[in-house]
Amino acid sequence: MSGRPSGTPLGIVLTTVGRDVSRAFDDALSAAGGSLPTWLVLLALKRHPRANQRELAEQVGIQGATLTHHLNAMEAEGLVTRRRDPANRRVHIIELTASGEDAFQRLREAAVTFDRRLRAGLDEAEINGLRQVLAKLQGNVRGPGTSGVVPSACSPGAAAPPPPPEADDAGPGT
């Protein structure tokens, strides 16, 4: 490809679409009584019950201090509990409470409904093609020798393990 690109540069299109999708997903989660950080933590805990804070931060893709801020709020809301690991008192184990389970189910329904909205008018071939194109674009920005992997809802910027059955299709583009 030489010369000027035709049409709006892809970076601007992706940024605009990404911002619109992100805002709409935030609105859907908010209407269900949650937020994206809360959803990501709940989803990670469903995939890996009894995770410690370091593991949880890695799964969610955020820094430990940021996670602590979110966990403080979630603990105050009664969604999670933190306790010291008896084998290593420096480590905190995070677990869902019954209220956390309820919140997970509410936010899961919001996420699944939102995903259906995103997929409206697209067939499986188009969705798979979109995933392939996004993976290529991601690989292009990561640089030579890296492969593009479109992240799951749980792990921005990194591939996540397959979700348990109750967490399938639980985020935008999953």
Automatic annotation (TrEMBL):
Pfam families named in the record: MarR
Gene3D superfamilies in the cross-refs: Winged helix-like DNA-binding domain superfamily/Winged helix DNA-binding domain
Residue span(s) of domain HTH marR-type: 7-139
Chain segments annotated as transmembrane: none
SMART domains according to UniProt: HTH_CRP (SM00419), HTH_MARR (SM00347)
Chain spans, region Disordered: 142-174
Name under which the protein is recorded: Transcriptional regulator SlyA
